[in-house]
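Title: Comparing notes on inverse folding

I've been comparing how different people in this forum approach sequence design from structure. To keep things fair, I'm posting one structure and asking everyone to reply with a full sequence. Here's the target:
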């Protein structure tokens, strides 16, 4: 994988100001069109079961209202559903950045919520490479760290969530 302006998988762009941040330079992933997906009841219920939380508040409007919510809330990690809407899923993302899947680790993920995401919303995902760095690994060898910003805009055109994933490619 190459770093800097010679990245083979992106084209340059400039992002406008984001909430609480200054203007940043990023690279847009090419060959990864925006996708739009519904936050539907069945997926919310599946997430609840996956997390071992059978509370109907996660998928039943009456239960959510009785618990004091204005709508059915979603788990904070609901944006991972987008990975199942795109052909190739996470492996496709790794391929898009030009990395070797057998050498890639998921380093971390963080979420910044700007507006609540509720069951029934429709989210549109746009991904950019926010940063690429290299450093020497503790066990020797070079590691390339790629930060991917995934912006999720809701059906009202509002930035709802920014998820930042750090992928680490270990060199042989």
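Reply #1:
Here's my take.
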């Amino acid at each position: 994988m190459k770093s800097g302006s010679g990245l083979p998988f992106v084209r340059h762009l400039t992002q406008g100001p984001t909430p609480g941040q200054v203007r940043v330079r990023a690279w847009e992933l090419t060959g990864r069109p925006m996708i739009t997906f519904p936050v539907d009841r069945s997926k919310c219920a599946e997430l609840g079961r996956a997390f071992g939380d059978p509370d109907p508040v996660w998928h039943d409007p009456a239960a959510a209202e009785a618990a004091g919510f204005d709508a059915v809330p979603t788990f904070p990690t609901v944006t991972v559903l987008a990975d199942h809407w795109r052909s190739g899923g996470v492996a496709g993302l790794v391929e898009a950045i030009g990395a070797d899947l057998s050498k890639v680790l998921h380093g971390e993920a963080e979420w910044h919520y700007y507006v609540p995401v509720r069951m029934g919303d429709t989210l549109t995902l746009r991904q950019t490479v926010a940063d690429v760095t290299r450093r020497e690994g503790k066990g020797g060898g070079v590691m390339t760290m790629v930060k991917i910003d995934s912006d999720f805009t809701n059906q009202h055109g509002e930035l709802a969530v920014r998820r930042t994933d750090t992928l680490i490619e270990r060199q042989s």
